[in-house]
Design brief:
The chain is mainly α. It has 14 helices and 2 strands. The protein has helices at about 15-40, 45-55, 65-75, 80-100, 105-120, 125-145, 155-165, 170-180, 195-200, 215-225, 240-250, 255-275, 280-285, 295-315, and strands at about 10, 320-325. The protein is globular, with a radius of gyration of 20 Å. The protein starts with 7 loop residues before the first strand and ends with a strand.
């Protein structure tokens, strides 16, 4: 069985194909070199992560540029050629190199995920196999990215930790529900929908919009750890269900998820009109299960913007849709 019976690609304009190759390679080389240099100067990934976050702030988003270029390119028919696959592989390597100092295992896995899942039709067997590989890889990377597991020696313990913290969010969901049942929701967020209000002004600097507040994950982490929200350097990871409950109360999560579903349907229609955004619309829907909306904005909304810009510049407007080979 296949999840998609027919896959459509966008085609690149012949007049601008070389321009895209030059632009993508030049930009990715610069970011990869900077990322490797930053990583080599740090004592550990978690130390470099903190320094990078404090020095770059919201501008850290530019380190994801090779990933965004990869997301655009794999949705082009050019990516199915031998040269196209080589460029895709390079963009995978460049993404890993440019984002390694950010200190997120997701950044190591996502470009590989994009390459393997979107370069050809996806079968159920491929999905199961790749999901297993992702869990194993995430487990092996755990001691490198998390200081708490630096001395872990048992592979079984690493896999169990990865499954319990990254795959299963039952304990966190229970904590969220208990917190909203025993306390009013405004004790977690300052007012209803405060976390979503922050998302509306996500790309606006705090100096321009100091009223935008903080992400839902920041409010919740502050509530649980008794730490001022503006002093946090990390946050709990949770998905759409938890975020709806925190912002509106547990009694409103079903209507909230219906709204999420409508939004996903609209994004699916967008990917039919602009096939270059197929990667962020598909992966963004999956990431909603385990990451908050601010994380989705950071990675996938920005990715969509870059893909749409690249589509308008480099795609062949006279023949946007081409069936997969």
């Amino acid at each position: 069985p296949q999840f998609e019976q027919e896959r459509f690609y966008s085609t690149m304009s012949k007049n601008k194909r070389r321009l895209f190759y030059f632009t993508a390679i030049s930009i990715s080389v610069c970011f990869a070199a900077f990322g490797v240099q930053t990583f080599s100067q740090g004592e550990s990934i978690w130390a470099t992560r903190s320094e990078l976050a404090s020095s770059w702030g919201p501008l850290i988003i530019i380190f994801y540029t090779p990933l965004h270029l990869l997301a655009f390119y794999v949705s082009q028919s050019d990516a199915t050629t031998t040269k196209g696959k080589l460029l895709s592989i390079w963009l995978v390597i460049a993404t890993i190199a440019s984002t390694i100092s950010i200190g997120q295992r997701t950044n190591m896995i996502m470009p590989i995920l994009v390459f393997f899942l979107f370069k050809s039709k996806l079968t159920l067997n491929k999905f199961i196999l790749f999901s297993s590989i992702v869990i194993i890889t995430a487990s092996l990377l755990l001691p490198l990215f998390k200081w708490q597991h630096e001395d872990s020696s048992s592979f079984g313990e690493l896999v169990a930790t990865t499954i319990s913290t990254d795959v299963s969010r039952t304990s966190l969901l229970t904590t969220v529900v208990d917190s909203t049942i025993t306390s009013r929701v405004h004790t977690i967020v300052p007012y209803p929908l405060a976390g979503y209000f922050y998302d509306l002004f996500y790309y606006v600097p705090r100096s321009v919009a100091p009223f935008k507040g903080w992400a839902t994950a920041d409010y919740f982490t502050s509530y649980i750890t008794f730490t001022p929200v503006d002093k946090l350097a990390w946050g709990f990871a949770f998905g759409a269900i938890e975020e709806v409950i925190i912002n509106t109360g547990y009694w409103c999560f079903i209507p909230g998820l219906i709204i999420y579903g409508i939004g996903m349907g609209l994004l699916d229609r967008l990917s039919l009109l602009v096939p270059s955004v197929v990667v962020p619309t598909r992966l963004g829907a999956i990431w909603l299960c385990g990451y908050s909306s601010s994380s989705i904005f950071l990675t996938f909304v920005t990715m969509s913007i870059v893909c749409i810009i690249c589509h308008n510049i480099f795609a062949n407007k006279s023949s946007n849709l081409q069936p997969s080979p």
